[in-house]
Every structure is written in structure tokens, then in C-alpha cells.
Specification:
mainly alpha, elongated, Four Helix Bundle (Hemerythrin (Met), subunit A), 66% helix, two-stranded antiparallel sheet
């Protein structure tokens, strides 16, 4: 199959994910954050993550990165399309469950509640899981060493650093309720229950 088809699939799924995020951002931008735990490192990694999402657009719409192309079998690219679609669905389910509790950076909103329903019934960090699915799908769809791996290269260190800070913030805010929730759910993947 022509690599341009997979570029188009990537672009359309990127537009879908951007629409999901834009809707959440516009709905909750005006809500007051009562506790902000943003660090400089987190802001730098957030900016790098955004760059990892933007670099693919240069690959899709210009020949600037063509020198770093590679090829993959079509079935792997199709798998990438499925993973990216799964990431979009997971991101939508996450925003739907979080509602007014979502913040783009680490923070606690006014009247913040602990969300344990919807997708949060199974994992504590579905948004990060969605982004990691996206980061894995990207090099399968975009056959380019720079554009394909740009998001993966920055998202892994970002989330590895951020998860600990977020878990501590939730423990500080919700105490034993969050500790119990941690015991019942997995971080990025559902806990395997023993029968």
C-alpha cells in the first residue's frame, strides 16, 4: 500500500484526537485550579511532547524529513492505525470520565473529586496509556525515523516522571481513599485478578 495512505490515516486520527482534546480544554479552561503542582521539568517535557506531535506534520506536508524514511509491511501499518484509533477512543473515554476534574498540567480543581468510574475503574492513568498507544502507533503509520519516533522519544520520559508526582498529589488530596483505589487498579494496564 502507498505510504501516503498511512500518512492520511495518521492525519485524520490526529484531527480526531485534537478535537477530543480541544473540546475538553474549552469546556474546563475557566474552572479554577486551587492547587498547582507544575514544575519546570514538567513544562519542558510537556513542550517536548507537543513537539513530538508536531514534527509528524512536517513529514506529512513537506519533503524535509524524507531522508530518514524506512519501510514496513502493510500489516504493521494497519496495526498502527488500529492502535491509534484505540488511543483516540481511550482518550475520549478518559475525558468523559474526568469531566470537570481534568487539568492539562498537574493540579487540583475546585470541588475536585476522585474519579473511579468509567475507564478509571480499570486503570489509574488512562490518558497516559492513550498517549503511549499513540506513541507506539506513530512509527507504524509514519515510516520515518524522526517523525515516527518523535512522540515516543519524549512521552516515555515525560510520563515516567509525571506519574509519581501525580500519584503523590492524589495521595495528598484523597489519602486512604486513593491508596485503596491504587490497590484495586493498575497504573497503565488493568490489574490481572486472580480467581
Amino acid at each position: 500500500m502507498n505510504p501516503a495512505v498511512f500518512k492520511l490515516v495518521y492525519f485524520l486520527e490526529l484531527v480526531l484526537i485534537s478535537a477530543v482534546r480541544s473540546a475538553a480544554t474549552s469546556r474546563y479552561r475557566k474552572l479554577k485550579t486551587v492547587e498547582d503542582r507544575v514544575t519546570r521539568v514538567d513544562l519542558v517535557l510537556l513542550a517536548l511532547s507537543a513537539l513530538g506531535m508536531i514534527i509528524p506534520l512536517f513529514f506529512i506536508f513537506s519533503p524535509w524529513l524524507d531522508f530518514a524514511d524506512y519501510s514496513l509491511p502493510d500489516w504493521l501499518s494497519c496495526l498502527g492505525a488500529v492502535l491509534f484509533a484505540g488511543a483516540a477512543v481511550l482518550l475520549w473515554l478518559t475525558h468523559r470520565a474526568l469531566g470537570r476534574n481534568w487539568t492539562p498540567t498537574l493540579g487540583i480543581r475546585e470541588s475536585h473529586t476522585l474519579v473511579t468510574d468509567g475507564v478509571f475503574r480499570y486503570i489509574r492513568h488512562p490518558m497516559y496509556a492513550a498517549h503511549l498507544l499513540w506513541a507506539i502507533a506513530q512509527p507504524l503509520l509514519l515510516h520515518n525515523w524522526i517523525a515516527g519516533f518523535s512522540f515516543l522519544a519524549v512521552s516515555i520520559p515525560h510520563y515516567l516522571l509525571r506519574v509519581g508526582d501525580e500519584e503523590q498529589m492524589m495521595l495528598d488530596t484523597f489519602g486512604e481513599e486513593y491508596r485503596d483505589y491504587m490497590e484495586q487498579t493498575g497504573g497503565f494496564f488493568p490489574k490481572i485478578r486472580q480467581f
